[in-house]
């Protein structure tokens, strides 16, 4: 089992534990705001399962039907997670509306908040681990899961403070109002997750800083060539696809051009982890006198 898959499996275990604690807090208090917090955790469990399946599929090697690999499976998981977040927000809004029409006092609120606070601490620690490792391993599924958990932690803190305020003031209507605010926060989180994932599915270019690093490597390592142009990049999960045209002098032997390409490819793979490089060699009459200048 890979390290990414182990972390995805860990998310499922943590999600089940946190869900149990939040459901207990809701049952102890009857709070709609705490119910909304628990409902979001059911999404965590479902999306953790989706992330495990997506990571397993993404790690499969390329085959005849998928010659570029299965890396985009993680983006599908992240989009699914965004959709489920939106569904959870709609369900919470429905409960909040009912609570606004008939607000009620809370039962055993302090004990319930302590249980909910324990669940939030577990979520916060796991969220930090997912985001850190997701960025380090360039896993969209882990990053989406971590960002969702971050929104869960933020909303849990807000719910706790709000329920405390409702206890102190005696304003029962604050409970459903907080649930509505949580729902709006979850909607925003779902949109961010889907937007980032759709960018990957639509083959967006790598960030400009990464593009500058790629240009720099090509410029420094293409000794013997004249220029490089038509550079294209895209990201698919952990893999960065890089392709460009390399112009060489007309008298260059095929073996010499091959050596130049090998040198550039090795340097790019050393600079950009999990890079897949495709280089199209052209004679000097194909030069466009634009793009990347060879140093």
UniProtKB/TrEMBL annotation:
The chain crosses the membrane at residues 7-26, 32-55, 75-93, 113-132, 153-171. One of its GO terms (cellular component) is plasma membrane. GO terms for molecular function: cadmium ion transmembrane transporter activity; ferrous iron transmembrane transporter activity; zinc efflux antiporter activity. Keywords: Cell membrane, Membrane, Transmembrane, Transmembrane helix, Transport. Residues 11-202 form the Cation efflux protein transmembrane domain. It comes from the Bacteria. Its main location: membrane. Residues 207-284 form the Cation efflux protein cytoplasmic domain. It is a multi-pass membrane protein. GO terms for biological process: intracellular zinc ion homeostasis. It is found in: Cell membrane. Belongs to the cation diffusion facilitator (CDF) transporter (TC 2.A.4) family. PANTHER family: MITOCHONDRIAL METAL TRANSPORTER 1-RELATED. This is Protein p34.
């Amino acid at each position: 089992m890979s390290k990414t898959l182990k972390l995805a499996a860990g998310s499922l275990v943590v999600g089940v534990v946190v869900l149990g604690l939040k459901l207990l807090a809701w049952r102890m208090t009857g709070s709609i705001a705490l119910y909304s917090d628990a409902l979001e955790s059911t999404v965590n469990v479902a999306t953790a399962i989706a992330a495990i399946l997506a990571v397993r599929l993404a790690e499969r090697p390329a085959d005849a039907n998928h010659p570029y690999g299965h890396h985009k499976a993680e983006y599908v998981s992240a989009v699914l997670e965004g959709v489920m977040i939106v569904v959870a927000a709609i369900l919470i809004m429905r409960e909040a509306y009912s609570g606004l029409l008939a607000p009620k006092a809370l039962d055993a609120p302090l004990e319930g908040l302590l249980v909910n606070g324990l669940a939030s601490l577990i979520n916060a620690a796991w969220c930090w681990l997912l985001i850190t490792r997701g960025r380090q391993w360039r896993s969209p599924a882990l990053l989406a899961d971590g960002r969702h958990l971050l929104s869960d932690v933020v909303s849990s803190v807000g719910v706790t403070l709000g329920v405390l305020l409702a206890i102190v003031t005696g304003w029962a209507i604050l409970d459903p109002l907080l649930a509505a605010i949580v729902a709006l926060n979850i909607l925003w989180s779902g949109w961010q997750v889907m937007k980032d994932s759709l960018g990957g599915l639509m083959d967006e270019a790598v960030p400009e800083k990464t593009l500058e690093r790629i240009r720099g490597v090509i410029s420094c390592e293409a000794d013997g060539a004249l220029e490089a142009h038509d550079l294209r990049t895209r990201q698919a999960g952990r893999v960065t696809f890089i392709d460009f045209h390399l112009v060489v002098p007309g008298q260059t032997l095929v073996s010499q051009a091959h050596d130049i390409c090998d040198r550039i490819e090795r340097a790019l793979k050393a600079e950009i982890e999990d890079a897949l490089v495709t280089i199209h060699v052209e004679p000097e009459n194909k030069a466009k006198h634009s793009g990347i200048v060879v140093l």
